[in-house]
Amino acid sequence: MEYEEMLKKAVKNLPVRTETRFEIPTASVQTGKRQTVLRNFAEIVKTIRRTPQELAKYLFKELAVPGDIRGSELVLQAKVPPSLVNQRIKEYVRDFVICKECGKPDTSLQKLDSYTFIKCEACGAKRPVK
Fold first, then answer.
1. Please, what is the average pLDDT of the chain?
2. Any idea what the Cα angle at residue 90 is, between residues 34 and 98, rounded to 5°?
3. Which domain holds residue 108?
4. What is the pLDDT of residues 68-101, one digit of tens each?
5. pLDDT at site 39
6. Same domain, yes or no, for 112 and 93?
7. At what angle do helices 82-96 and 52-63 cross, to 10 degrees?
8. Does 129 lie in the same domain as 77?
9. 91 and 109: one domain?
């Protein structure tokens, strides 16, 4: 058997690659007179594999509003447009979830001394975060 034939046979026996696309759920936002409630906050943090406190802290800082976590919802003490909330969540995922080396969302945050690192479970890359 020649090399070319063996190569064709090996390629034919490879499993079909199915790309699982990572999608962040769109925030279900309910806006009141003085507050904004993210109804599916628990679903979002489960999808991005982060603690509710980590994402909430980021949103409070980036949106410049106080708030708290009530059950599976995040309550912001200001009227915030849904588009802005979704934009900030996407920025968080880009900066703190997606691996810069391989582009996969299979990462975890690790704290060493006063530094926080993103460790990719897919490719093994490790990088500091801001």
1. 90
2. 145
3. 99-130
4. 999 999 999 999 999 999 999 999 999 999 999 8
5. 95
6. no
7. 120
8. no
9. no
* Overall number of domains in the chain: 2
Q: Tell me, yes or no, whether 90 and 124 share the same domain.
A: no
Shared domain for 103 and 90, answered yes or no, is no
Question: In sequence order, what are the residues at sequence separation of 6 or more whose Cβ sits closer than 8 angstroms to the Cβ of residue 27?
Answer: 38, 40, 41, 44, 82, 85, 86, 89
CA distance 123 to 107: 10
Taking only Cα atoms into account, the Rg of the chain, rounded to an integer number of angstroms, comes to 20
3-state secondary structure of 3: helix
Nearest Cα to 80, choosing from 117, 16, 37, 43? 37
Q: Measured between alpha carbons, how far is 130 from 128 in angstroms, rounded to an integer?
A: 7
Query: Which of helix, strand or coil describes residue 49?
Result: coil
Look up residue 50 and give its two tokens.
């982060």
Residue 105 CB partners (closer than 8 Å, separation 6+): 22, 48, 49, 93, 97, 98, 99
